[in-house]
Amino acid sequence: MSEGNQHMNGVQAVAYCRIRYVGSDFARTQRQRTVLTLMFQKLMTMDIGLINNFLNTALPLVTHNIPSDVLTSLIVNVPTYLTYGIYQMRVPFDGAYTSQNYDLVPNYEYTITLLQQTIYY
Q1: CA 80, CA 35: separation in Å to the nearest integer?
Q2: Any idea what DSSP says for residue 93?
Q3: Beta strands 97-100 and 103-106: pairing type?
Q4: Would you tell me which of 2, 32, 97, 98 could form a disulfide with 17, CB atoms 3.0–4.6 Å apart?
């Protein structure tokens, strides 16, 4: 396989996201965010018919607790959501956690404040 961008099918993308032997857990979660971002960017270029086909294929595979009437209203607004910018972050934030018995424990006060500032401001 050559260097650079690669077109992957779903199985390949999941395998790429789950690689645990290259880099840290932070690198693995970055790969996951990269794949999700690229999927969202591709959705942004689709017409409403292709988006509908994608949702009809993907949604039955997703477990959620969103009431069907709420989910329907969200789906109706997908074209608007696709005009939004993409912003990503990860928890724990760099320098805002401690390690205890191989677990990363976030500084909750700082993390909550930063999440609120990012989401609501």
Answers
A1: 21
A2: P
A3: antiparallel
A4: 32
Please report which helix (H) or strand (E) contains residue 83, including its range. Answer: none
Q: How far apart are CA 38 and CA 40, in angstroms?
A: 5
Which are the contacts of 37, defined by CB distance < 8 A and separation ≥ 6?
86, 88
Return d(Cα 62, Cα 107) in angstroms, integer: 31
Output the six-digit token pair for 105. 């424990």
Q: Can you give the pTM of this predicted structure?
A: 0.72
Tens of pLDDT, residue by residue over 79-120, are: 888 888 888 888 888 889 999 998 889 999 999 999 999 888
How many whole angstroms separate alpha carbon 36 and alpha carbon 13? 10
